[in-house]
Amino acid sequence: MLKEVVGAGRQSHCTFSPSPIFIFKYLWISLLIVFSLKFSLVDAANSFPNILMPSQFVLDSSPSCTKMDLKLNYHPVIGILSHPGDGASGRLSNATNASYVAASYVKFVESAGARVIPIIYTEPLEVIFEKLDLVNGVLFTGGWAKKGLYYSVVEKIFKKILERNDAGERFPLYAVCLGFEILSMIISKDRNILEPFNSSYMASTLEFVDNVNIQGTVFQRFPPYLLEKLSTDCIVMQNHRFGISPGRFEQNKELSSFFQILTTSNDIDNKVYVSTVQAWDYPVTAFQWHPEKNTFEWGYSMIPHTEYAVEVTQHVANHLVREARKSSNRPPAQKVLESIIYNYSPTFGGKAGKGFDEVYIFT
């Protein structure tokens, strides 16, 4: 065959006609090389992802500033009610009229872009109401006081909050731990509504109730992966000896008509209690757990400080301040400055290795 081809080549131009098998092998090897190169490039891109900035993929990337919404208040102020004592069992102040606000609550609010005015519960009622006129929302903290003057002041402030919302002003309230418990007592009109639970100094999950609608609630802007983490990881801090079981909560018409249950949790003995509620008709959210501790308290080893736990704290703080920005209250700036928390200095109490790291003490 070779001789015939060579011989023919002497007489005329030779054309090479490869066999089909040869063509198949050539194409197959070429395809393998192409695919190999392609997947190598994909692997390299995945190992070192190229993060494109907006100017790299937007044709018109000329900068433009987002217009301010004139309906929103971009200087919101939150009032935090002080609690009896010094927050350290008398180690920092044994004054009989002492009250305190843990600095973690202040930082919690400030981290979301608001300022704080302390509402000192022992002040005359007219002074407390004057301070309410300077703020765009209120936070009731954790603690132990469930009777006497403190209970009475919480009740009166809560009534004012509802009145302002009924009058058309958006005026949010957060109630944490003790705040949750006192609100439950006030709304249910039952001082004995609470039940004992074994949930002191422990981290836990949050279990969302079946078919719950989180639209408009504190959880609305949580990313899906974080909602899942709340149900699978112990990333919220619990520290309470009382609470309300879902059954008792639902049986009380006043409570169930005012609040919807968003989440439940289990105590050490696996008893289920209501852990997060949202008012049906008001911007009022109550937590049996402590959203402020994950980022701002270090006194106990069981406080979760993972990235997910810190993210929970930030989202919860953002929701409160987002609601406060909707408040139509625009108090005089100088009046706010005269009452703002910056007029006070926090006291470091963390040297004992337990309790609050910092507290604001008022006497």
Low-pLDDT residue intervals, each spanning 5 or more residues: 1-16
User: Spatial order of the strands in the main sheet?
Assistant: 4-1-5-6-12-11-10-8
CATH fold field value: Rossmann fold
Quaternary structure classification: single chain
In N-to-C order, the SSE pattern is HHHEEEHEHEHEHEEHEHHEEEHHHEE
Whole-number mean pLDDT: 89
Could you give me the name of the CATH homologous superfamily?
Class I glutamine amidotransferase (GATase) domain
Shape: globular
Count of individual domains: 1
Q: Tally the helices.
A: 13
CATH architecture group name? 3-Layer(aba) Sandwich
Subcellular location: Secreted, Extracellular space
Keywords: Hydrolase, Membrane, Secreted, Signal, Transmembrane, Transmembrane helix
Pfam families: Peptidase_C26
Catalytic activity: (6S)-5,6,7,8-tetrahydrofolyl-(gamma-L-Glu)(n) + (n-1) H2O = (6S)-5,6,7,8-tetrahydrofolate + (n-1) L-glutamate
